[in-house]
Design a protein that fits this description.
The protein has two domains: about 5-85, CRISPR-associated endonuclease Cas1, N-terminal domain (Ribosomal Protein L15, Chain: K, domain 2); about 105-315, Four Helix Bundle (Hemerythrin (Met), subunit A) (Up-down Bundle). The chain has nine helices and nine strands. The protein has helices at about 70-80, 105-115, 130-140, 150-175, 190-215, 230-240, 240-260, 265-280, 280-290; strands at about 20-25, 25-30, 35-40, 50, 60-65, 65-70, 85, 145, 310-315. The chain has a four-stranded mixed sheet with strand order 4-3-2-6. Strands 1-5-7 form a three-stranded parallel sheet, covered by helices on one side. Strands 8-9 form a two-stranded antiparallel sheet. It starts with 18 loop residues before the first strand and ends in a 6-residue tail after the last strand.
Amino acid sequence: MLKGRLGLETARVPHSDREGLLWLSRGNLYVEDGTLRFRSAGSDSLPQGDYAIPFQSVSLLLLGPGSTISHDALRLLARHGTGLSAIGEDGVRIYTAPPIGQDDSRLARLQALAWADIRTSTKVTARSGRLEIARRLYAWRLGEVLPHKDIAVLRGIEGARMKETYRLLAQKFGVRWEGRRYDRANPQAADLPNQAINHAASAVEAAAAIAVAATATIPSLGFIHEDSGNAFILDIADLYRDQVTLPAAFESVRQYEKQPSITLERQVRRNVGRRLRTDTVIPAMIERIKILFEPQERDAGVMDDGDTDGPTEIRQGPI
């Protein structure tokens, strides 16, 4: 390769010194005189024009619908460790998630140590194993630290609360609800609310996959979910089930019942995408992952490792 070709001799900037995500859609990503540029056709987030892209100060580019990318642009991004993911509108689908070349494997190592249930007292390693990470995820979801240390009991408590959440949201949006039912062999056989929940869950999982790719954590090493190859993605997606997945699903059913000419799946994706964007959910997911494996202090608003006599209120993190 010729020296200076596309600026490839330039030193890489550590990801710790970079910003997070840059969203681009409806345009052409290309290289000109060693500079990455995006020729935008115009969208809600970026007016029509030709923009220089500060790719060395960004960790992950998200390339949305209606976009093309040149071979030289891919080479330039790869050389500087800037990731690229092709996504659906507002991040409700992810079509590719290559490793983004983080400067070290710290988060992945913390995750692996916690998943393997290796206990250690050092601050740069996992806090105290798989169950404690699961308890922290449940605490974020439920708004309190539960004293139970049996994963089956925690799942049962969460399941009971979800039944009430389904009922309340169905009532709020005026949707008839007969319970959560899902036949994997025939997903279209489900009633409209269950179909909508399935579509919304897939969209939020795509957003979680973006967050997992951005943090270079391991998709298959989950703490509440276990069997799926995307178990950790499901863990992160479920943090936003009450905030994004279910409200978007029931809202979409209400809209569909008023206007049957619309496509339910497309309406669900739009509603999920709007919530992901307005609530800045993907950056919040990334921040949650970053602090998930850190040592936890009572005064930081997170759970305590010791046994308790009852639920302890916690301060919610960013959502």
